[in-house]
Amino acid sequence: MSIAFAPRHRSKSHRPGSPSSRPRPSEAEKIFQALRQSPYWAHWQLRVVEHQGEIVLQGRVGSFFHKQMAQELARRCSPQAKIDNRIEVCYRGF
Question: pLDDT: is 93 or 76 the higher one?
Answer without folding.
Answer: 76
